[in-house]
Amino acid sequence: MSKINIKIILKDNREMNAELFPEKAPESVNKFLELVKQNYYEDIIFHRVIEGFMIQTGGFKSDFSESDETSPIFGEFSSNGFKGNDIKHSLGVLSMARTMDPNSASSQFFIVTKSSNFLDGEYAAFGKLSDRESEAVAIEISRVKTESKNYHDDVPVEPVIIKEIKIL
């Protein structure tokens, strides 16, 4: 398969470039691209931010209302019986967020800001930030001040908002 590159553009015009890996996680990449094409991620916030771990998005709009539900997909990781995905959760990796149900991933994803090998084989990694500048932006986001809000922890006090995600 050919390379698929994306650009995540924030409301403050910071950007993160990433490459997606459909050969490793085809259903995850297809689901993500389907949502990007529908402009699903416009005005969506990073709602869970943990320094030294990851930043998560895809679940809440900038007014902290829940984003529209989307259908879940099969979890493409080894502990769920999927054999093709050997992507390690190192700095910059994009991975599908989920509940305890291994097949519950839908619209939420996270970007790893520090190598987290305990996630390997447990979550469907599907892409990776493609340059140091993008990694630096993700780490900057992970360091913002957070609070608890509406029963959710680690929510940025000042919202970090996605303006759009582009397929390049």
Quick gist of this model?
By secondary structure, the chain is α+β, with helices and mostly antiparallel strands. The chain has helices at 26-37, 132-142; strands at 4-10, 15-20, 44-50, 54-61, 93-96, 109-112, 125-129, 146-149, 152-156, 161-167. PPIases accelerate the folding of proteins. It catalyzes the cis-trans isomerization of proline imidic peptide bonds in oligopeptides.
Overview of the molecule:
Its EC number is 5.2.1.8. The protein has 168 residues and is an alpha+beta fold. It has a single domain, classed as Cyclophilin (Beta Barrel), CATH 2.40.100.10. Helices cover 14% and strands 34% of the residues. It contains 2 helices and 10 strands, in the order ββαβββββαβββ. The strands form 2 sheets. Strands 1-2-7-5-6-4-3-10 form an 8-stranded antiparallel barrel. A two-stranded antiparallel sheet has the order 8-9. β8 and β9 form a beta hairpin.
